[in-house]
Amino acid sequence: MGIAFFVIAGFTYLKMQNFLEGPRIEIFSPENGSTITNSFFNITGQARNISFLYLNDGQIFVDEEGNFSESLLAYPGYNIITLRARDKFEREITESLEIVFDAPNNGVLLLEDSVVGATSTPEESGL
Predict the structure, then answer these.
(1) Domain residue limits, the chain
(2) Contact (CB, 8 A) for 101 and 39
(3) Sign of CA dihedral 25, 20, 58, 60
(4) 62, 77, 106, 109: most buried by Cβ count inside 10 Å?
(5) Is 71 helix (H, G, I), strand (E, B) or coil?
């Protein structure tokens, strides 16, 4: 009788584990607080016990094991990426990822290098 109780209790715990844990999000890459040098990057991770997963408020999808991989475009400087998961019991969890995109100049003219406000006339420029 005692063994049957522990078997039933163990089985019940395993079945209720998803309910007890709630939704989970684990971000594999990039690392929180990291600096990236390419504006185009992938965010990868795993979500468990979820019904819906959102990346910056847009729904994304996971494979059978809960893995996700999405491509993003970073702005120069400080970026915050937000993942939000919801389970079938309407419980939500949010994970934020903070990264810095160190944008190299790449020969692009900066505003102070441009000719904004030039005062030459068409005759002076040869037009």
Answers:
(1) 2-105
(2) yes
(3) positive
(4) 62
(5) strand
